[in-house]
Amino acid sequence: MKSTIIYEDRYQWIVFGRDPDKPDGIIDTNQYLVVDGKRSLLMDPGGIEIFSAMLAAVLRYTDIDHLTDVFASHQDPDIISSLGLWDQALPHAKLHAPWLWEGFLRHFGLNHIEYNPLPDEGQVLDLETAELVFLPAHYLHSSGNFHVYDPTARILMSGDVGAALEPPGAPMFVEDFDEHIPKMELFHQRWMPSNRAKQIWIDRVRQLDIKYMAPQHGRIYRGENVKRFLDWFEQLEVGTAIKDE
Amino acid sequence: MQQAAFSRQLPFVIAARLAGRLYGVLATAKEISLSASNAKGIAARGGEKTAGFRPITDFITEMANDTISLVFKINQVALQISTMSVSENRAMAARGYFSKAREKLAGHDGQEQLLGIVHGLDGQIGEFRKNERNAIDSLADLFDDIEQRTRAAKIIVTNSRTEASRAGEYQTYLESIADSVERATETIHAEIKVCRHYLSDLMETIAAS
User: Fold this and answer.
1) Given CB atoms, is B79 within the 8 Å cutoff of chain A?
2) Lower Cβ count inside 10 Å, N or C end of chain B?
């Protein structure tokens, strides 16, 4: 599992992905970790198939007892099907996830970790020094969906928004935005169901100061590419599986 | 051939199949209970001619009810085994994932931190196996109990035929009831035999794991 530190000051943001040992046929995912002294937040920890690699990678940055918080943006298997294993590893941790999915996520096995049901309007999580905002992103793509915004690090962990489908081993950052469009176009047209939800999210995100927009698949957007992505996404018609009669 | 097919399955699948098979035994035990009710009616109408049949019908009813209750118990235990086996399987899978993470952490403190979790899972797996073995032993006892009743039922069928031969115009009815109890008893015996195959396969699979 490759790891890259994308922010380092009083605390760190680390992205994990591009696991060379990942079994063929499963979609590549990015996992994010904020390490803040004796508190850490692991975001969208991934599926069962990458659990061992993820756990080993995470423990290179933090002690297992300091891994106190886990976040699931929504209920998909590539996001959190490893929950039953994290539940064994982190019996005293807290899972922050949409209230809507609590009864569903518990099917993955949740006997120890405490479930913090995020209300629709979102919530703030204080670690030791970091203040992280669980930002509503409902219907993007899941009906109960959140992103994580860090106003200090100016990072938006944007879940499936900004995701791209790429061959294994793709670079971690978008360098040429135009060249990147074909890799993400179908994903957004097909996976995102609502133009209205998309516009509400764009309006909300435009008010934030964002240096890195970090999706759960594909590459991270930096600087000017964040704005370019928002402009591109705004004009994109989504929910394309529904054809007009 | 059937044995060989069973042995490729996981314990929770075998236990669930065993539980499913028991529905056949249950249906047959209910048929016996119905036959006993019919026999009771005939015995009541036949007065002196069928007097010897009355205690036999009581016994058949008791036997059918006991069998039904035993089947419920067996079903419960079989499902417990299946559930425990699923949990064991999950714990073993989890152990595999944690061990793999430890390998990746060679030379790092994290390797030691995960050792406690692996040991905890070993403890859980050991506990599941112990409980599964105990449950299998109790299943074997419950099967013995049912078979004891089917053996007794065979003797009762013989007695029923003797009593039927003295029942005058009721003879044909009572003989047909004796035949039906005999058939049902044979069916239960055959079903239990299959269930015992499942049980021995379950024992072997768990012992080998």
Assistant:
1) no
2) N
What is residue B6's predicted lDDT score, i.e. its pLDDT?
A: 41
Residues from A contacting B (CB-CB < 8 Å) are 48, 51-53, 55-57, 59-60, 63-65, 84-85, 88-89, 109
**Chain B residues closer than 8 Å to A59 by CB:** 101, 105, 108-110, 113-114
CB contact under 8 A, B113 and A52: no
Q: Which amino acid makes up residue A17? A: G
Domain map (residue ranges) of chain A = 2-235
pLDDT 10s digits, B64-90? 899 889 988 988 898 889 889 888 989
Angle at B121 between CA A98 and CA A25, to 5 degrees: 55
Using H for helix, E for strand and C for coil, what is the string for A53-72?
Answer: HHHHHHCCCCCHHHCCEEEC
Chain A nearest C-alpha distance from B96 (Å): 9
Per-domain residue ranges for chain B? 2-84+138-208
Which residue among A48, A53, A64 places its CB closest to the CB of B110? A64
B100, B108, B120: residue with CB nearest A59: B108
- pLDDT tens string A102-152: 999 999 999 999 999 999 999 999 999 999 999 999 999 999 999 999 999
Q: Does B118 touch chain A (CB under 8 A)?
A: no
The complex scores an ipTM of 0.80
For β-strands A31-36 and A94-98, DSSP reports them as unpaired
Measured CA angle at B194 (ends B199, B189), to 5 deg: 115
Task: State which fold the A2-235 domain adopts.
Answer: Metallo-beta-lactamase; Chain A (3.60.15)
pLDDT: is A152 or A26 the higher one? A152
Q: Across the A/B interface, how many CB contacts are shorter than 8 Å? A: 52
* Cβ-defined contact of A55 to B121 (cutoff 8 Å): no
Query: Can you give the pTM of this predicted structure?
Result: 0.83
Distance between CA A22 and CA B194 in Å, rounded? Answer: 43
Q: Name B162's Cβ contacts closer than 8 Å, sequence gap at least 6.
A: none
Instruction: Compute the mean pLDDT over every residue in chain B, rounded to the nearest whole number.
Output: 87
Greatest alpha-carbon pair distance for chain B in Å reads: 91
Contact B100/A at CB under 8 A = yes
- Residue B154 contacts A, CB cutoff 8 Å: no
DSSP for residue B186: H
Q: Find how far residue B208's CA is from the centre of its chain.
A: 22
